[in-house]
Amino acid sequence: MARDEAGKCCVIGTGYVGLVTGACLADLGHSAICVDKDKEKIEQLKKVKIPIFEVGLEEIVRKNLKKGTLEFSTDIEDAVRRSEFIFITVPTPSDSSGNADLTQVDDVARTIARAINEYKVVINKSTVPVGSTKRVERIIQEQLSEPHEFDVVSNPEFLREGTAVSDFMKPSRIVIGADSQKAIMKMTRLYDKIDAPLLITDPVSAEMIKYASNAFLATKVSFINAIANVCEAVGADVREVALGMGYDERIGFEFLRPGPGFGGSCFPKDCRALLSMAEAHGYNFYLLEGVLKVNEEQQRKIVEKVERLLGGTVQGKKIGILGLAFKANTDDVRESPAIFIVRMLLEKGARLSAYDPKAVANARKELEGVDFAESPYEAVKDAEALALLTEWDEFKWLDYARINKQMKGNVIVDARNCLDPAVIRKIGFVYEGVGR
Ligand code: UDX
Questions:
Q1: What is the pTM of this model?
Q2: Which of 227, 267, 297, 418, when mutated, tests ligand 1's pocket best, judged by the most ligand atoms within 8 Å of its CB?
Q3: What is the pLDDT of residue 336?
């Protein structure tokens, strides 16, 4: 691929990362084939029916499908043959002991080996355990029916749900882990149009960068949650504390929002995987163990707050739940603290009515015994308590005086510190946030 020439790419696995990667590569002027074995999903994608809610994604999918730079297909081998850059973006779920399950990555590697017809750069974008780039290389090498040149590189993504498209187009950095100069040159040209620091390193370090970054951010969240708990005990306001800490550039303001703990498809899974990876190599990563413990405890603490404010029990009481997604601006409920909290409340015999602007369809698959409401007002009607669990903007601007009239009780547990305690208390609520 010469300078300014479009790269021929295929992206295997059309989950969050794959779909965003394919659509953005096409939007950068390359050609991209997004492949998935799920026929129904591919049929829907061809009709621009996007299975996830992601700002700006639908627009670039539509635009590039029309231009012909983006294609959807179920034929992995054909896509591999027609492409020079093969991105692997299949899921690597946690197995029962916390290790990343590489079954799907291995399958894809074998399929790639069958289809290789000329030089390919195979790019591991899934978060895979350290050493996986070499593993993919070995599998392809072993399965090749005739000799062909190829390189495998690690190119971890740092996409956040809700801002994935802009994170792809304007990343904080591009990390390329490769041993081959040829592959490095090709990857560099592929990302030519993106203005970001480029870090070229060995594959193992690239893989480690991804785990270390996510684990560090998760540590920041657990740290501020632990500080929030101390703040509650001593009577400080964690938001003031976080602000005061953030001014120190070495600390920064980001990821110091206390809440019900971190969730999503990455932080919990990647922390567990790093922990078990370290353990497998004989290192006890006590700090990370603590990060995960604080996270679980944080969810329990929200439940305990609701219980305490309702006089010691939630049994038989109606609680209105606002927010089910693991964070705002996404419909994703994977490892959502809200879902864990709802399950704990159900186990304790509470009656729940829940509302989320985007995540109800996904939450329905996870929860049984919850009433799903069409609006926040419907969710809190006749409730004894309201638990605000996801920081959707719309929850900040609700008519809380109206809610107060509609509710049977007057308890608000604001797990995201979205509301102004003074205003809320003045309306007549008993309010508790986190760490204030
Ligand atoms: C994360 C990483 O940010 C991204 O780089 C990586 O590629 C995938 O994992 P994402 O899972 O989309 O992205 O969510 P993120 O915005 O990082 O939030 C993760 C969790 O931490 C959420 O549950 C969020 O609510 C929580 N969080 C985050 C806090 O509780 N407090 C904070 O200050 C920040």
A1: 0.94
A2: 267
A3: 98
